[in-house]
Fold:
Amino acid sequence: MKERILLSLAHMGGSEQKYVEDAFRTNWIVPLGPNVNEFENRLEKYLGAGNVVALSAGTAAIHLGLVMLGVSKGDEVICQSLTFSASANPICYQGATPVFVDSEPDTWNMDPAALERAIIERKNITGCYPKAIIPVYLYGMPAKMDEISEIAARYGIPVLEDAAEALGSEYKGRKCGTIGEYGALSFNGNKIITTSGGGALVCPDAESAGRVKFYATQAREARPYYYHEVIGYNYRLSNVSAGIGCGQMEVLADHVARRRQIHALYKQLLADIPGVTVHDNPSDDFNSNFWLSTMLIDPSTGRTPDEIRLALEEENIETRLLWRPMHMQPVFADAPYYGGTTGEDLFNKGLCLPSGSNLSDDDIRRVCEAIRACF
Ligand SMILES: *Cc1c(COP(=O)(O)O)cnc(C)c1O
Structure:
């Protein structure tokens, strides 16, 4: 059996263990400490933004973003439909209702026209504007943020970016995660860098970052005894995990560069297969980290993404279908949806390719040969 090629794996740089050992040596084995502070500082420097709070997961970051924006029972929150369920689940944690919006074909992310229709129609139906907008940067690709921000500002609705897949991506030279009121990042095992599990919330100012830390540590008021005025959460990142994050920050730029190289290699090696298109930045305004390289398979080829997936599995290569849109999920069957069939069409035609920064050029060639053999 040929060696297994996986979609995206943790990729250690080498110094992670040093920071983790520091945590043990100094007995900072708690959800705060020097590694947490250092990891936040390095993220702030990398993003060119102050006020990053390290948390236990990207999902926790989205949840606290919604808490900070005052989302509560009975509210509606607009969310991109073509995404991972973790973009939408925290809306339900708050007792609010997700309103799903379709993608557009250039970026595969939130369609600004459908967004505006959703805002206007929800206001007509409920008498209230949605409380927040969650665009997602799928597979690292930035959304059309000028258009989305302009519409959001026109109706006075804050934007919470789900940048879980997009650390290192840029939109018009601005780092993803720093464009909306809040930005959520993930450091899960398969993301561009990992803390084994973890996330961060990019906040607009020091005051809101302080409030996020307060919520993330059980909302304890500053008194000598335990005293609570609001519901809190246990969402802070541990000092051990943050040690892995500190080491990973030293190789983040290399990892992003390597993912972009892998994407360029796929583009080159698959260019001449009719009906196969590797998804690319729609213009120079977009600079994806290409967390995952993806391709569309036109039905005219007579092949479906799942057939390709199974054929590559025979070659011991892992691929994955795109996210199935949230408005097509049984759990969200009752949620309102605005848009057409773009997300659904992408789901029916798309495939995610092995993209880990530890893959070699030869690995990518093996993947491309296996794809070629299908056509
Ligand atoms: C990974 C991911 C999340 C959740 O991050 P976790 O750290 O796994 O909780 C949210 N949204 C998207 C789009 C993701 O890919």
The pocket of pyridoxal-5'-phosphate is lined by residues 57-59, 83-84, 86-87, 136, 162, 164-165, 186, 188, 199 (CB under 6 Å). The longest strand covers residues 76-80. The radius of gyration is 21 Å.
